[in-house]
Amino acid sequence: MKNILETSNLKFNIPFIPQGGYSTKQEMCLAFITYYPKVELAGCYSMPTIPHFFHTFGVKQFYHYDMETVEKMFLKLSDSKIKKNNKTHHSNVANDDEAAILMIKNMAEYTVDETHETNNLFQDLMIQEPAEFQDKTFLDHLIDVPWDEPLLTRRVEETLYKGKHINFCRLSNDTLAMPPITSTFPNITE
């Protein structure tokens, strides 16, 4: 087994917050594990189970897809394309100028990486149930979530830290290296 650590432009103990400079992708360390015989392993990932993740945000069902199909879409096991909903999304915004301002405010913390995909499942999935979120995209629902509400943020933290996760690895040809495994991470405390 051979471990290779590649880093670029690491700066430790700097007395100020840097302005500008390299992007996060260029700045962070990338650890690669290679071994013989060579395996075309592109990466290993973990994410909350899809039904549990969406349930955390109160979503029960999407138009056109059950949760199992949505999970396959996230794992890229399904060639299903998102069906655009013919229902119109009614905005609370009065005109185009206000809509543009709202979009810019929502994008304040958004960055685009060079590898950013134009297809965003969160934007494409249209909520069917419950009725209070009906006909909203999941991304619009996330934007409207009261993130300053401690009960909600605690529930989201519990889901992300202690909930069941799907663990999977991809090969360089974008196929799964092995079947996904569902597990709960151990409770590690200091």
UniProtKB/TrEMBL annotation:
Q: Can you cite a GO biological process for this protein?
A: norepinephrine biosynthetic process
Stored Pfam families: Cu2_monoox_C (PF03712)
Instruction: Give UniProt keywords alphabetically.
Output: Disulfide bond
User: Which superkingdom, per the lineage?
Assistant: Eukaryota
Q: What is this protein called?
A: MOXD1 homolog 1
Instruction: Quote a single Gene Ontology cellular component term.
Output: extracellular space
Q: Which GO molecular-function terms appear in the entry?
A: copper ion binding; dopamine beta-monooxygenase activity
In this protein, which residues make up the domain named Copper type II ascorbate-dependent monooxygenase C-terminal? 20-49
